Amino acid sequence: MKNTGNRGNMSADLFMRVGEAAEILGVSQQTVTRMCRDGEFAAVKLRSTWRINREAFMRQVGLA
Question: From the centroid of its chain, how far is CA 20?
Fold first, then answer.
C-alpha cells in the first residue's frame, strides 16, 4: 500500500485561494489577483491561478 501522508491537505494549510483572501478583505477577486501580480502578497502563480501564503497573508492583514 502506498503511503501518501498528508500532502493532499498540506497545500490547503499553507496556501489560500484568491476567493478566500477576497472574502477576508472584503474586496473583489480581481483586486486580490492584481495585488498578487503586483507583489503585495506572498503568492505564487500555478498555471492560471494564484495561491497565497496563508500565514504571511494573515500576518499582513493583522489576523495572526
Answer: 8
- Domain with 32, as residue range(s), is 12-60
pLDDT digits (tens, 9 = 90+) for 37-46: 999 999 999 9
Residue 25 CB partners (closer than 8 Å, separation 6+): 31, 32, 61
Provide the number of structural domains found in the chain.
Answer: 1
Are 41 and 35 in contact, with CB atoms under 8 Å apart?
yes
Instruction: Average the pLDDT over 11-25 and give the result.
Output: 93
Q: Is 1 part of any domain?
A: no
Cα(5)–Cα(21) distance, rounded to whole angstroms? 27
Q: Measured between alpha carbons, how far is 45 from 51 in angstroms, rounded to an integer? A: 6
Enter the pTM of the model.
0.80
